[in-house]
Amino acid sequence: MAPEKDNIIYEQKLHYGIFVLPFLALVISVFPLGFLYLSFNIIMMPIRQMQPNSAPHLTWLITLPIMLFLIANAGFFIVIWLAHRNNVVRLTTNTLAIRSGFISRNVAILNVGDIESVFLRQPLLGRLLGYGTVVAVGTGGTPFHMQFMPEPTALYEMILDAKSRGKLPKKETRRNDLPPQDDSRYMPKG
According to the 3-state scheme, what is the secondary structure of the chain? Predict the structure, then answer.
């Protein structure tokens, strides 16, 4: 009997919802920084009018921290984009594979038959935007977290379906197959 071919059932990257909270943090923090910048320029306007060459360098006192903040936030978005690009979950007929990492690679492969339980978590923002976390627990209790997955209920149901198809019937042991119950092998010979 030929082994079953390993067909891909589901393959997905992270949901774009991972960009929402950093974007909101950027928007919320840009308004106070912009207000601070405009206030500083309004305060400096009379000084510049009285002495035009006396305080041009003071503008950098407020501009430099704002620029550093924006550069740091751009770096943060690049890191999130790399995480989005390099995290993949693949469900096949026989395995569940989770690949993540950019600098250091993490790969977890779990046989579908070894999955003991599957959990689904969706916060409010995740329900609104269509992402969530699916946790597959393998034999031995090791959890495999798949965070920010698009359409997590579909992935959850696909894992459960693959798990139910992947279960092999257990071989029944008959009483004749068991070893004898005597303890003679532990008794001293002689």
Answer: CCCCCCCEEEEEECCHHHHHHHHHHHHHHHHHHHHHHHHHHHHHHHHHHHCCCCCCCCHHHHHHHHHHHHHHHHHHHHHHHHHHHHCEEEEECCEEEEEECCCCCEEEEEEHHHEEEEEEECCHHHHHHCEEEEEEEECCCCEEEEEEEECHHHHHHHHHHHHHHHCCCCCCCCHHHCCCCCCHHHCCCC
